[in-house]
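Archive maintenance. Older records in this collection stored only the sequence; we are now back-filling the structure field for every entry so that each record is complete. The fields below show one back-filled record exactly as it appears after the update. Entries are processed alphabetically, and FlgO domain-containing protein is next in the queue.

ARCHIVE ENTRY
Title: FlgO domain-containing protein
Organism field: Pelomonas caseinilytica
Length field: 169
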Amino acid sequence: MRRELAAGLLALAAAAGAVAAPPCILVFGQGRNPPAAGAPDWDELNARFNAAVAEALEAPGRRTVALTASAAQIDPASAGLALLQQADAAGCITLAETTVFTDGQDTLVLRLRVYPLLPQFDGGRIAGLRIGAPLFVTQRELAMATLARLQPERLAAQMAAEYLQHDRR
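Back-filled structure field:
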């Protein structure tokens, strides 16, 4: 009887361990500058920066889900809701927002913001997630003239490392 109980508990513990994946960080990137003739490919720059941040945040005990949206996104409200639904489905507890854009004053900005994803309650039960106050923000501001030699992957690795130093989970 004890052996059967122990075997049952081991099987239950193994099943629980197999089901429970480590919480993830949803790494979401979206540009601010829409496509324009003669302008840089902002969506491509954002995708490269986003992928590099996600890769740098991936570590033992951490997993990331990387998503990007075009700067030409028409409905930000529905995109935000879809983002939170994807985070919830993936078991993400953190949102890392990435972006590369120009501020219109000849300044190139690369930014990483990290937010907690918190439960949103409806009638005493969890009905989804909401974005909390930023836990961490870092950005680089460069002259637009540096764009030709910009390596967003390098800056993404540095900025993600700054966050990891801050987080230390």
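Update note: The first helix runs from residue 2 to 19. Residues 34 and 74 are 11 Å apart (CA to CA).
Entry marked complete.
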